[in-house]
Amino acid sequence: MDKADLHVHTRASDGDLSPEEIVGLAGKRELLAVAITDHDTMTGVPPALQTGRELGVNVIPGIEISAVYDPGTLHMLGYFKEFPAGLEDDLEKIQKGRLDRFPKIIERLNSIGFDITIEDVSSIAGNAQIGRPHIAKALIKKAYVKDFDEAFDKYLGKGKPAYVEKEKLTWEEAIGLIRKHKGISVLAHPFTLELESSGLKNLITRMKAAGLSGMEVYYPEHSHEQTKLYKTIAGEAGLILTGGTDFHTHERGASLGDCGISEEGLKIILDHLDYH
After folding, report:
1. Cα–Cα dist 185/201, whole Å
2. Does residue 198 sit within a domain?
3. ∠ at Cα 137 (128, 166), nearest 5°?
4. Edge-to-edge, what's the strand order for the sheet holding 59-67?
5. Is 161 among the domain residues?
6. What is the number of structural domains in the chain?
């Protein structure tokens, strides 16, 4: 494919495939590059980089950091030229928050009548840090829901009965952390902010002043109109345009490489990483 998929999750957070499997799949699909962007951790990046060297696949070290934002959801992508030693230590606070969060989700599911245990979910997650998709799989396995969409729409999504907020940085802290480790920060899937165009423009202006480098314009759930709007806003703000599938599993969402950026767009990002 003539695309670089810059938003991909592995088993190191809440994806189905190991980092090695993701890179192997990227090679089979002849992607220009793949960025490993697990939630609040970079433990999947070293094995992905090693496999990339072995297979000749361009792997970009990355991360997706959850940030405080209401009423919508704000995620910040970070991209790095090489593995940023020390970042994992800086993320310890929010990683602990993730560990504390999931027993609370299980408790809420139990309170509404679901017979599901931490052991049920842990057996699905394996060595990965537990994520809501693992809990969704447990619900599917026990036939409480038929698929991921029902699990999130009814129980696990923001504002639903079993949703528990997790420990997060502010978006200013997320941008600062990425910059501290010589990375470039990119606002992920801006539609989840639930902002009108004027509000998004105002927020982007503030983020740009704090060091934001780019916006994820190309994304499977963006409509044609949204993609056009985000491209305009990013262009006016002088931001890099990025894109990716947000790939987690073959069972939900776009397939690896279905969405991304062109060779020209990739070159712009790599040039910025060289500059940083």
Report:
1. 17
2. yes
3. 60
4. 4-8, 33-36, 59-67, 74-79, 184-187, 214-218, 240-243
5. no
6. 1
Distance (Å, whole) CA 172 – CA 84: 19
Report whether 257 contacts 3 (CB < 8 A). yes
User: Which CATH number goes with the domain that contains 187?
Assistant: 3.20.20.140
User: What's the CA dihedral at 38, 39, 42, 45 to 10 degrees?
Assistant: 0
Residues contacting residue 70 through CB under 8 Å, at least 6 positions apart: none
Token pair of 82 as six digits = 């090489």
Measured distance between the N- and C-terminal CA atoms of the chain, rounded to whole angstroms: 28
Q: Can you give the residue range of the structural domain that contains 222?
A: 4-84+181-275
Per-residue buried b or exposed e for 10-24, using 16+ beta carbons within 10 Å of the residue's own CB: bbbbbbbbbbbebbb
Cα distance between residue 131 and residue 245, in whole Å:
18
Residue 40, both tokens: 């609040």
d(CA 39, CA 20): 17
In a domain, 257, yes or no: yes
Each residue's pLDDT tens digit, 53-103: 999 999 999 999 989 887 788 999 999 999 998 998 888 877 777 678 889
DSSP characters over 138-154 = HHHHTTSSSSHHHHIII
218-233: per-residue pLDDT in tens?
Answer: 999 999 999 999 999 9
Where do the DSSP E strands lie in the chain? 4-8, 33-36, 59-67, 74-79, 184-187, 214-218, 240-243
Q: Is the pLDDT of residue 250 over 90?
A: no
Residue 172 in any domain: the answer is: no
CA proximity to 185, closest of 129, 144, 239: 239
Q: Number of C-alpha atoms within 13 angstroms, CB side, residue 50?
A: 9
Q: How confident is the model at residue 239 (pLDDT cuts 50, 70, 90)?
A: very high
